[in-house]
Amino acid sequence: MQGFITLRLLLVVTIIMIISAGIIFGCLPDRDPAPAIFTDDESTPEQAEDLPVFEDSEGSIDDETADDLEDQQDEEADEEDRGQLSESGEETMGGSSSAGNGESGFDRDSLDVIADGDYLLALVSKETTLKSDYKPSDLQRIPSYMNSSHTTIYLRAEALTKLEQLWEAAEADGVNLLRIRSAYRSYSTQDRLFSDYASRHGEAQANRFSARPGQSEHQLGTTVDFGGTSVDFQAAYADTEQGRWLADNAHLYGFVMSYPAGKEHITGYIFEPWHYRYIGVNAAMEWKQSGKTLIEFLETKPQTFQ
Ligand SMILES: [Zn+2]
Fold first, then answer.
1. Averaged over 157-178, what is the pLDDT?
2. Share of residues in the chain with pLDDT > 70 (%)
3. Distance 259 CA to ligand 1 centre (A)
4. Which secondary structure element, helix H or strand E, spans residue 255, and what is its range?
5. Looking at residues 205-230, what average pLDDT do you find?
6. Which H or E run includes 179?
7. How far away, in angstroms, is 94 Cα from ligand 1 center?
8. Closest-CA residue to 185 (of 165, 209, 215, 161)
9. Nearest-CA neighbor of 189 among 279, 65, 52?
10. CA of 48 to the centre of ligand 1 (A)
């Protein structure tokens, strides 16, 4: 009799354990692997922290002053690391590099060398490169009202003139563009920046948000990164009043958003709603009409390689 009771007790306990286990496991969330890569910061905070990003850090004027600026640039670059990979990253991640050169397949010698970096319509892509010693000859400092940082930022003369007009036009529309985060960057600065990102994220990954040296539009001296918001270097910049105004109006002053949303398979870069390149007013108007990405548009223009 006692044995029977013990057996029943054992049975009841076992049943309770089975039911409990069912409840516990039933409540567990899906154990699907987390997406290999970045979605937005809220959904995957840890990953997002790990996988920073963007392409940008401050520009330096030239090699003489580069060393002086190095520390400052490093500071800025670190600051920028707070940025996050953006929406367009979601589509191709996991599978990884849909565009550009693979982790080990990069071969600088196979690239077309851009003959003249001064040419406003020069095709800067992952298949072309500027010469390592190319540096625009007419760089000018951007005025302090556009640059609240301690770093000096340079842009080519014509692009700067148009940027000033654009800035005023935004102001007239009640939009303060706040500040330029980065403009001209030398080959060596880009080299250092890309190496740093590549060492932390791997080359293929880094190349989604940062250009290899020679392949950055920033080396042209005609490209700016707008910022000064709480979402600098993030896809969310597109939804700020500054980002919206620029998307609607920048082309009127010759500036084009190089890396739009959902076009990573064409441009090779994630969505960068803060990054604008000056190509001249007429060309920018024509580009707008075309509905193409900048890279596709420039492919229709004469290019000279050496
Ligand atoms: Zn940029």
1. 98
2. 66
3. 9
4. strand 255-257
5. 98
6. strand 179-182
7. 24
8. 215
9. 65
10. 20
